[in-house]
Model the fold of this input.
Amino acid sequence: EAGVAQSPRYKIIEKRQSVAFWCNPISGHATLYWYQQILGQGPKLLIQFQNNGVVDDSQLPKDRFSAERLKGVDSTLKIQPAKLEDSAVYLCASSLHQVAYGYTFGSGTRLTVV
Amino acid sequence: EDKVVQSPLSLVVHEGDTVTLNCSYEVTNFRSLLWYKQEKKAPTFLFMLTSSGIEKKSGRLSSILDKKELFSILNITATQTGDSAIYLCAVAGRNQFYFGTGTSLTVIP
Done:
């Protein structure tokens, strides 16, 4: 089966610019997660969708980060405006059910803010 | 507060050595514990553990869960340079996964 697709793979932007990441989960997976992984740290959950509804966005910096999952399939994560500390790998993962047995990560987008 | 703690943070061994990585957790409504290997890309799935005392094995890797003492170990025997990676432990609670910071393993030829 096809995996979780993410794009772009890499992005370099200047601080205060905007950036958007895209994720296409595995077909049929109802639950989609966005994680931020800063170098040397484990992934931190930013937002979790169940179909097109938000389950948990408690750790999403809502003043600058936004995410949507229209139609309950693809999702986009946006940062506007970016800060230096947003430099990280942004991972998307999907699972068949909420907190299902095992889930699949995409290859991630490495963001560098200069 | 739910948390997952991994130890050691980093480890350097020689090829052929055996290593044990630790993961302890405090997560309400525990559902499962997962181990991932992360190289330069996204984490790849190794094991999922839900029951205490049942060892899971895949080649030179094995893992076991102790739900009474709230920890899991990941063993790698006869290590190879290809085992060099960050090993992540994640625990599924009621609504989300909680990750540890990972253990960085370096295997020297």
